[in-house]
Design goal:
Length: about 270
């Protein structure tokens, strides 16, 4: 038997214990896809900040810095550094130190700042830090709100056309290495638009339900699929398909603040399915 080492991903996100987002969904998704997820929490929260009241919160930058030193002492090497929600602007330092420590890792940055044209609670001071991270990343994956924030453009009042989406992605691609704008509503579809070596669009029928954490689920499947050697367009398609599946398996009567019921469909990611 020939052993194949799992790919190792350093996940620099918060851990929201309940509400199905952040490391709570990213780690199981990456594991199901055969990768080793190493959690580097930017903060520990009892829930996310999107509709479950005021969460208990433990912010720490020093924990992450010490953890990075420890992994360096161990001689660990990461195949990928995947960052998202920062709890403090100083958390930027964690991502930068990780980039310096493991320069050959694939750097995926999700500039988690807001959704639906609004900033998430507590994100008011985080834009400069996200910008710095995105400048050094190989792939940046904003939603439309985050794309507008990065570009200092107002959030569009009306649905964006394919042409506008293309222009926004191209503008970001002029600033960053490769960009994928995710989850944009166009007519009956939810579209992700990629621009880097190639331009492409991935479409799924929108399901008229929205949940916190779907960006993290999308990002985790995208990361896992890229690490399996898929092209960005194929990885984005797999991610859109998984999120759509997970929403379809969620009781529409359930409180959306607790996120999508992705657990019953996690098995779809196993055994090289994607
Ligand atoms: O899924 C993004 C996210 C991550 N972490 C926390 C959040 C959110 C979105 O609301 O509140 C704490």
């Amino acid at each position: 038997m020939k052993y194949q080492a799992p790919k190792t991903v350093l996940c620099i996100h918060d851990l929201s214990a309940m509400g199905r987002c952040s490391i709570a969904v990213i780690a199981p998704v990456l594991s199901a896809m055969g990768h080793q997820a190493v959690a580097l929490p930017t903060a520990l929260l009892s829930t996310h900040t999107g509709g479950l009241g005021k969460p208990a919160r433990l912010n720490s930058n020093s924990f992450g810095l010490e953890a990075i030193r420890h992994y360096q002492q161990l001689g660990v090497s990461f195949d990928c550094i995947y960052s998202g929600y920062l709890a403090l602007p100083e958390n930027q330092q964690l991502v930068m130190e990780a980039y310096d420590a493991w320069p050959d890792a694939l750097k995926i940055a999700d500039p988690v700042l807001g959704d639906g044209g609004r900033l998430y609670s507590g994100m008011e001071d985080m834009l400069p830090a996200m910008r710095q991270i995105c400048l050094r990343a190989d792939l940046v994956t904003p939603n439309l709100t985050e794309a507008c924030l990065l570009l200092e453009k107002p959030f569009p009042k009306e649905e964006v056309s394919q042409e506008t989406l293309k222009e926004l992605t191209q503008a970001l691609s002029g600033m960053y290495r490769e960009t994928l704008i995710t989850g944009v509503r166009q007519g009956r579809d939810l579209v992700s638009f990629g621009c880097g070596e190639q331009e492409f669009a991935v479409r799924r029928l929108a399901l008229d339900r929205s949940y916190p954490g779907t960006g993290d689920l999308f990002g985790a499947v995208l990361t896992g699929a890229l690490l399996r050697g898929n092209a960005l367009s194929a990885a984005a398609d797999a991610a859109a398909g998984f999120v759509s599946d997970a929403i379809k398996h969620t009781d529409p009567a359930a409180d959306p603040a607790y996120g999508v019921w992705f657990e019953p469909v996690l098995g779809h990611l196993c055994n090289g399915g994607i």
